[in-house]
Input
Amino acid sequence: MVKRQVGHVTIVAVCIMVFWGIFYVASAKASKTMFMPADYELAQINYTAEQRLAPTKFNGNVRKIVYLTIDDGPSLYSSQLISILEQYNVPVTHFLIGKNIEKYPESVKQYEERGDYIGLHSMTHDYNTLYKKGEAINEMLQVQDLLKSSLSIESTLFRCPFGSMPGLSKQLRDEAVAAGLRTWDWTIDSNDWKLQNRPSQIVKTIEKQLNRQTEVILIHEKKRTINVLPQIIELLIDEGYEFATYDESKHFTMNFYNDDRL
Ligand SMILES: [Zn+2]
Output
């Protein structure tokens, strides 16, 4: 009996390793073949062993959780965004840019009131300023101050414009830790930033990559994305995902460096 259990454990462990190997090779291949300007958003996430081995179950089934994360807002399209989210009763996580918060503070308030998490996404959104000049963490703290002083919203989670890798150097990561901040990248990039004239491809791009028990999907607060948002949400519902918003008390590591301090 013991032998048999050990056998099962070994088989499960081997399966996980093989699956992981295939996934690793496939993602390495994909990132080589994809068009990648120096400053664009791209990479794959590495799950920690704990995340892979500790599924949350419900009625014996593994629950699938999706975090829909929306960058670069608020914007002219925020009210359209909110009405779609309300219609489906879907909570999301926003990563907001300083100047947009100043321009559309009411939208930020509405996000907060509906229970969405408000995250930080820099003041300038400029690759050179953030990473080459090393202002990333200073800018996240400026957005943090702005949210607190103008809207009484507290936030500790930031998302790097263009993703954390390679811009967020060890020094910047140390600064983030010292400042009490955390960062999230994503498991799925919808590519909505480059699918300007092909909004239906945004949905397909997400669909092709959906395979994890926990997904963090990157979309942007852009007209083209909001237009297909109902299709994105319906796809996720059909695939059996539950929607969640980021919760500081349940933080888990989700950055391309797998830096578990963040
Ligand atoms: Zn952005």
About this structure: The chain has two domains: 1-52, 62-250. Confidence is low (pLDDT under 50) at residues 28-44, 49-54. The two ends are 42 Å apart (CA to CA). Residues 71-72, 121, 125, 161 surround zinc ion (CB under 6 Å).
